[in-house]
Structures are given as structure tokens and as C-alpha cells.
Design goal:
It is built from 18 helices and no strands. It is mostly helical and 469 residues long.
Length: 469
């Protein structure tokens, strides 16, 4: 069930209408959302109905144990059990085919077949679940006593496919709170975020994919170097609008149920350096990698500063592997890890200077960062290393023509760039005006959006790009 499908919105409305009358009864309201969570998983495969509840229940028991255990060895054993279980789920149901294939290439033997691959939502579930047990191990919170609240928080349906990764200790208290009311302003903002997400997905991301990106990346040899470069820019915009569009719909869906999810994007292509980019792009993943992986690696407090840079590289290398079981993602992660290490080393060498205040001094670093990120996206998008190098080769051909860049593509890319670089206060003003408008005006605006999508979209919605990770 895609978050852009009509079935999803019928489902969301049904849950909304059942949930709010029962909101004052904690167990009943939690049961409604838990049912929605598991129904959402079941639409993708009944196997999830065995895997997710079992894993959630085990982590719930581990959490209670971490809350009660005083001896450090017991706490380490419990958190190690949670790590082994969740990482084992990832390795078994997402990466096993890749590992077996790599072993086959290394050993020169035929790789055994593996038919138990269920990547959908597994990464986001496991990372979300690990926030709970690791936070308890670090004594950053107390265990969730309600089994119903824990199982609901760890599998919350809007975050199932592509996040944002929500910490259980932040979401569970919201779920357990009774007596909430949906204010008209919050309802308006929820509808605005959903409408904005649909606009981003259908009218920008899918349009660029269908009319530019897929064509150039599928057959790069048919296009000039300049057209390929525009295709790379187009993919950078497509990926941002696709993923941030999903985030908008997820945040809006949660807000309709009175729940607040963390923001996941903050105009990433305005970043001044690669570290700034990762503070703006997929923020929930960046924070997860920093808080639960980077800070856990050995040598962070060592006098050998080189270990800090090694840890940065390893963190992003593993972050690349998390995105997919393919060497292209490992290269993408290595590029970002190497860039982060170089950037941190350069800042340290210069005494950690403050970023420039003048816009003209910020323009150069921002353009350099944006082009590095766009270049790295080539490996993120490519199906293989040979495919990635073919695209890079076309970029290096230095051929110039624009015959395959239509006026529609140019117009949509212009809208995408303007939307991304629009001042935040303008975007906040627009959201506030929509939320303050009468309900019939909001309904009319959404109706116009739906008609526009129906008129301009030549095909149905493509799956969100991040559902494969």
C-alpha cells in the first residue's frame, strides 16, 4: 500500500474516524493504531505478521530487563541480544543474497540461492527498534511499561516504508497520552503536509523520473554529455522531492492522529559543506548513525585523532551498505565518508572557523558541495559499477546538445529549484495561511491539486525510491 495511493487515503480516513472517538480509552486507541500498523505490513506480505510482532515482543522484554538490571554485564548481555536479533534480521532478510553472491565471486563457486529476502521496511524497523534498547542501555530513558504502547510505537505505519526513523522513547509517550484533541490548526497543517507531499511526488519527482532521469540513466550512450549532466541534476532533484514528499505525507498522516514525527529534511542542497549536508539530508538517519554507530565505535576518545576520521569513513561506509546490498551503495558511502573525513580534517587544521555570513562567500562552497553530492548520486542511482562508470564516461565526453531536454522538463526543474531555495519564512507563511483558512477553502485547494495531478500525470505513482532501502 503506497502512501500516494487512493487505497492508503481511504485506509487513513477509516483509522482517523475510528481512532478519535476512542482516544480517551488508552488501550482501545492503541489497539486501533496497532491494528493499522499490522494491516499495513500485511498488505506487503503475511510473513511480516510473524516477524515484526515476535521481534517487538522480544525487544519489549529486553527493555524491561535493562530497566531492572543493575550489573553492567547483564546490561551488556541484554543490549547485545537486541543488537544480534535486529542486525540478524537485517542480515538474513535483506543482505543474505548479497553476502552469498559476494562469497561466490570470491571463492569462484556458484552462490547458493536465497529466497527469503524481505527488504521492505526491514531497515527502518530495525533501526527504530534499536533506538529503544540502546537508549535504555545508556540510561537515556525508562522502559515503556505498556506492551501495547511499545509494539505500536516501534511499528507505526506512516514510518514503515521510509521513515523518518522515530525514537521509541519519543513516540511511545505521545501514544500513551489520553485526552488529546485535534486542533483545527493542526488538522490544517496535516492536510497541508499531505498535499505538499503529493505535489512533490507526482508533479516533480515522478515527472522528472519519467521524462528525463530514467531515460538518461537507462541508456546513457544515447545522450550527450550535457544532457547526461542535466539528467544527474534531475536525479538529485527527483530523489529529494520523492523522499521529502514521502516524509511530508508521513508527518501529515501522524499529525492527523495527534502525533508528531521528527522533521527529515532542511533544504539539503543549500549546504555549505558535506557535514552540513548530512545535518540537512535524511536527518533522522544522520542522527541515528551519529548517536548509535559513530559514538559507539572504538577510539573516539583516543589521543590518536586519525581514528576519528577512520570512524567517520566506516560510519558512512556502513550507511551506504544500509541503503542497499550492492557495491554501488558501498562506493557511494565511501565517497561521503572520505569527504567527511577530509572536511573535518580541513576544519580542524584551520581552527574550526565560523561559516561566512555574506551570501557571495557562501555561494562557492555551496556549489562545490552540491556538485559533489550530485556526482555521488550517480553511484546511488546506477544498477552496477559498470553502469555508473558508463554515466561518468558520458559526462566526460564534453559533447553539448539539448535536443532531448523538453520544455516541460526545463519548467519542472526550474520549479523544483525555486521551491528548494525558497526562503523558509515564505514556506512557513504559506503553511500558516492554509491552516488558518476555512475548511471549505482547504478542501477546494486539495481538490484542485488532485485534478491537477490527474491532468498532468501520465502514469500512476511510481513506488517511493526509499522503500527499497
Amino acid at each position: 500500500m503506497l502512501l500516494t495511493s487512493s487505497v492508503y487515503f481511504v485506509f487513513l480516513v477509516a483509522i482517523f474516524l475510528i481512532y478519535w472517538p476512542l482516544q480517551r480509552i488508552r488501550a482501545a486507541s492503541l489497539a486501533v493504531i496497532l491494528f493499522a500498523n499490522y494491516f499495513f505490513y500485511a498488505k506487503w506480505g503475511l510473513f511480516y505478521l510473524a516477524l515484526i510482532p515476535a521481534a517487538s515482543f522480544i525487544d519489549y522484554l529486553i527493555g524491561l530487563g535493562l530497566g531492572a538490571a543493575k550489573e553492567q554485564w547483564k546490561r551488556r548481555a541484554l543490549v547485545s541480544l537486541s543488537l544480534a536479533m535486529n542486525l540478524g534480521i537485517l542480515a538474513t532478510f535483506k543482505y543474505m543474497a548479497f553476502f552469498l553472491g559476494a562469497w561466490g565471486e570470491f571463492s569462484g563457486t556458484k552462490a547458493p540461492e536465497w529466497h527469503w529476502t524481505f527488504p521492505l521496511g526491514i531497515s527502518f524497523y530495525c533501526f527504530q527498534s534499536l533506538t529503544y534498547t540502546i537508549d535504555l542501555y545508556r540510561r537515556d530513558g525508562k522502559p515503556v511499561r505498556s506492551l501495547l504502547a511499545h509494539m505500536t510505537a516501534v511499528s507505526f505505519f506512516p514510518t514503515t516504508l521510509s521513515g523518518p526513523i522515530t525514537r521509541v522513547l519519543a513516540l511511545a509517550p505521545q501514544l500513551e497520552k489520553t485526552g488529546r484533541e485535534l486542533k483545527a490548526e493542526d488538522g490544517g497543517r496535516a492536510l497541508y503536509r499531505i498535499g505538499l507531499g503529493l505535489f512533490k511526488k507526482f508533479l516533480i519527482a515522478d515527472y522528472l523520473a519519467e521524462n528525463l532521469v530514467n531515460r538518461i540513466f537507462d541508456t546513457p550512450g544515447l545522450y550527450t554529455g550535457m544532457e547526461t549532466l542535466i539528467g544527474v541534476y534531475g536525479y538529485a532533484l527527483q530523489l529529494y522531492y520523492d523522499f521529502s514528499g514521502y516524509t511530508d505525507i508521513a508527518i501529515g498522516s501522524a499529525l492527523l492522529l495527534g502525533l508528531k514525527l521528527p522533521e527529515n529534511f532542511n533544504r539539503p542542497y543549500q549546504a555549505l559543506n558535506i557535514a552540513d549536508f548530512w545535518r540537512r539530508w535524511h536527518i533522522s538517519l544522520s542522527n541515528w548513525l551519529r548517536d548509535y554507530l559513530y559514538f559507539s565505535l572504538p577510539g573516539l576518545r583516543s589521543k590518536w585523532k586519525a581514528l576519528t576520521y577512520v570512524n567517520l569513513f566506516v560510519t558512512m561506509l556502513l550507511g551506504g551498505l544500509w541503503h542497499g546490498a550492492n557495491w554501488t551503495f558501498i562506493v557511494w558511502g565511501a565517497l561521503h565518508g572520505g569527504a567527511l573525513a577530509v572536511q573535518h580534517g580541513w576544519r580542524s587544521f584551520r581552527g574550526n572557523p565560523k561559516p561566512p555570513a555574506e551570501w557571495w562567500r557562501r555561494l562557492g562552497p555551496s556549489l562545490l558541495t552540491g556538485h559533489f553530492v550530485a556526482f555521488a548520486w550517480i553511484f546511488f542511482r546506477a544498477s552496477s559499477m559498470d553502469h555508473a562508470m558508463e554515466v561518468v564516461g558520458r559526462l566526460g565526453s564534453a559533447t553539448v546538445a539539448f535536443d532531448n531536454i523538453s520544455q516541460g522538463v526545463a519548467a519542472v526543474m526550474a520549479v523544483a529549484v525555486v521551491g528548494h531555495f525558497m526562503p523558509r519564512k515564505w514556506a512557513d507563511w504559506t503553511a500558516g495561511r492554509f491552516a488558518a483558512a476555512p475548511f471549505y477553502a482547504q478542501a477546494a485547494a486539495l481538490a484542485v491539486l488532485v485534478i491537477l495531478i490527474e491532468y498532468l500525470s501520465m502514469t500512476g505513482a511510481a513506488p517511493f525510491l526509499y522503500t527499497q532501502f
